[in-house]
Amino acid sequence: MIDPVSSFAINFVAILGGILLLIVIGGLVTGLIIYQIDKNQTTQTIRRNYPLFGRFRYVFEHLGEFFRQYFFAMDREEMPFNRAQRSWCYRAAKDIDNTIAFGSSRDLRIPGTYFFLNCPFPTMKEDAVKNQPLRIGPHCRHPFDAKSFFNISGMSYGALSKPAVQALSRGANEAGCWMNTGEGGLSPFHLEGGCDIVCQIGTAKYGVRDEHGMLSDEKLREKAAYENVRMFEIKLSQGAKPGKGGMLPAEKVSAEIAAIRGIPEGHASISPNRHPDIASIDDLLDSVSHIRQVTGKPVGFKLVLGSTDWLDEFCEQIVSRGIEEAPDFITLDSSDGGTGAAPMPLMDSVGLPLRESLPALVNKLIMHGLRDRIRVVASGKCINPTDVAAALCMGADFCVSARGFMFALGCIQALQCNKNTCPTGITTHDEDLQRGLVPENKSVRVTSYHQHLVNEVEMIAHSCGVSEPRKLKRKHASIVIDSGRSVPLDILYPEM
User: Fold this and answer.
1) Which residue has the higher pLDDT, 172 or 100?
2) Which of 26, 230, 241, 383 yields a CA-CA distance of 20 to 30 A from 120?
3) Cα dist. 54→18, 38, 85 in Å?
4) In the 8-state DSSP scheme, what is residue 232?
5) 253 and 269 in contact (C-beta within 8 Å)?
6) What percent of the chain has pLDDT over 70?
């Protein structure tokens, strides 16, 4: 007679065997169905020629980008930001030791590499001075004394999630830097942290548009009434997509985002490729003057430079109108700037990189006597101290970063910003994915990242013998050219 325990074991094994048999049969049937589907479909050659097995090619292709990041790519190989760059951001944000040992892993022969030219007698700690606030818009009713030379670049609520915007706003307030709203309009989440805000006006004029999509003076005054809205920025173009407007997929256009932007819910938000009412230099200067008059606050514009021929005429027009009619600042983006979504040809092949366009712009302003009147803000891959210090050497008054602060929030460069599936909750409106991003904790990392970057740029400045970063000049840095040798920036780009 079989005891109860043995009977249970036999029955369990029989049931388990039956389940496994069903799974095998189900797998075979499923495989046969997929085989027939693949064999008879006509859209994909690999699947038609190699039914069932051809599907593994697409699976491995998708997984490849993740395996390369974690297992195969060296520290300095990835794009747009390699592991060494990201790791610096993560350590700075977490306020942990950011020193390295043994030697640099950076190949110093690659064209575009910066060297800072240290002096034999660096600035002593007791002789160093903290970066002082710099005034923007001296002819405005409400000029802005910007406290930090490093700030948060334009990222829209919509492209970013609610907790991401909240964390950035709170962190910026603690760090003493400004936050740019991006072209998606001013949201309550930008305001709630109490930081200084730059309100960006994109080509669709989200947040400041009337029922016809044109600029509304009433809504401009409404936004300017907030004390911590310090400046307005007209977005002409950005580095990742010159000549193309913002692109927000329909699944990201919630009722709340639609209300903030003034557009229909659930429809893709595609901005015009330029401002319909700005078709010339005169139009641009008229718009700057009008917005400044309505708001009483500094007004500038953002662009990525391609052709520089028009800059002479631009400066001459300002001089003829009077220096008070000049834009209060120009934000210069780099052709390798970032975005949530852009066509590949524009992202890869249009516009000039910052290392070429920044000296060109600054030189034009110097030639026409406008350098002290117009502040220059550098944007585009300024996520590490090296790139920020280099931009200051080339003449920038301020630097702004978007992706650096995204790394501070925990971005892992999953390259899914345009899919609403961001695994870190930064660029998604999926509430389950947003759970991992706790604004109270991440805001601390935003502040820490800012402070570490500022401190290390100051350290570079002191090594070059100046007391604070804005005293860095082109003579303080060299850049590697095609021959593998470096050339001082003041020789490569002499000031006019």
Assistant:
1) 172
2) 383
3) 31, 9, 37
4) E
5) yes
6) 93
3-state SS assignment for residue 301: strand
- Amino acid type, 315: C
Task: Return the DSSP state at 70.
Answer: I
> Can you tell me the distance from the alpha carbon of 453 to that of 93, in angstroms, rounded to the nearest whole number?
10
Tokens of 383: 């996520």
Find out whether 250 and 267 touch, Cβ atoms under 8 Å.
Answer: yes
Average pLDDT of the residues in 100-114:
81
Instruction: Supply the pLDDT for residue 413.
Output: 85
All residues at 6 or more sequence positions from 325 whose CB lies less than 8 Å from its CB, including other chains: 285, 288, 289, 318
Give tens-digit pLDDT for 354-370: 999 999 999 999 999 99
Phi, psi (degrees; rounded to nearest 5) at 401: -140, 140
- Beta-bridged to residue 399, according to DSSP, are 150, 378
> If pLDDT is split at 50, 70 and 90, which confidence band does 486 have?
very high
- How far is residue 416 from each of residues 70, 379, 428, measured CA to CA in Å? 17, 22, 9
CA–CA dist 188, 166 (Å, integer): 9
| Higher per-residue confidence, 11 vs 208 | 208
Q: Strand 486-488 relative to strand 477-480: parallel, antiparallel, unpaired?
A: antiparallel
Helix axes 281-295, 310-321, angle to 10 degrees: 50
Give me the pLDDT at residue 495, please: 82
Distance CA 207, CA 290 (A): 17
Number of other CB atoms surrounding residue 15 within 10 Å: 10
* CB contact set of 144 (below 8 Å; sequence gap of 6+): 135, 136, 137, 196, 230, 231, 297, 298
Quick one: tokens of 395?
Answer: 């003449």
d(CA 466, CA 446): 27
Rounded distance, CA 451 to CA 171, Å?
Answer: 11
3-state secondary structure of 392: helix
User: Quick check: 155 pLDDT over 80?
Assistant: yes
- Going 433 to 439 to 445 to 446, the CA torsion angle's sign is positive
pLDDT tens digits for range 36-74: 998 888 888 788 888 888 888 777 776 666 666 666 565
Helix, coil or strand: residue 190:
helix
Q: Which residue has the higher pLDDT, 218 or 343?
A: 218
